[in-house]
Fold this protein.
Amino acid sequence: MPLTDLDMALRGAVTVLAFLVAALMLRDHRGRHSARLAAAFALGVAAHAWCAAPGFAASTGWLHAVLLALSAGNAVVGWLVAASLFRATFRPRPWHGAIWGLVAALGFAAAAPGLVATATDGLRLSVTAIVLLLSAGALTEVFASWRDDLSDARRRLRLIVVVSLAGATMLNAALFAAFGPSSRADLVSLATIAAVLAGLGAVSWGLLNLRAGDLFDRPTPPEPAASPERAMIERLERLMTVERAYREDLTIGRLATRMGLPEHQLRRLINNGLGHRNFSTFINGYRIAEARQAFADSSQAEVSILTIALDTGFASIGPFNRAFKAQTGLTPSAYRRTALA
């Protein structure tokens, strides 16, 4: 089979897989913004597969410009997918859409008929630099809370994302910067689309083999724990509620040491027994509960918010404000005014 035919076959396979993943995400989890973002990312990968095909730019004109815009903007979507899956406090914001629009517009300008003559190497390299920067942002989201993740399955998914998708994205961006979409050799083009297919396939396998409770917020409370596990849960809850261990600079490793358990066993205990995906969310729940009690206590009305934040275990006011608003929907000062009214 000629390399060109094999190249087209691989691009077709990427397209079919991308549409399948998007359909499954929307069918099974359409109410979750992370699933909608994952579906959008899969479709963006399909757009990229064709806009980077040899000879496609010359034969399709405006369609190529549109697909290149979607491909460039997909770097933003990939970053948002990583943030929505791995950052507990993430919520889509209007400015996320604005960034997508800007990057997509730059991609469109780099390929639109009539603008190609003015689409200098500087513009092309600017798009590539933005894609690489956003890919680095996605990697940061994956790494930032890796140790904080209580689900073994989601930790494996992080590894799959790092090894496959990020590698394929950065390889393609580097080739785009070096050769441009219209001057790649057939072999380079084939290697690139094969890497994209492998990356998409690996991440799709990881996503589709996770339980909804591992991939998204747990939809239902966990089942009652067995007796030995129940005893460990009661001991853990006593550490949190009676000894208030959450006031300390607590990590999953330090808490495991206090419990006398291997770290992986404590992760499973909190994840499966108590229904938490993220260690910080688990600990901050106790901290926020104490802070809410303090804000509702008229005898502490003159105590500063910073003092309460530090007393409950937060290291600074910024993380406290973000965690408090994420859990209650109100800023600490607004909550205090309401509670004392």
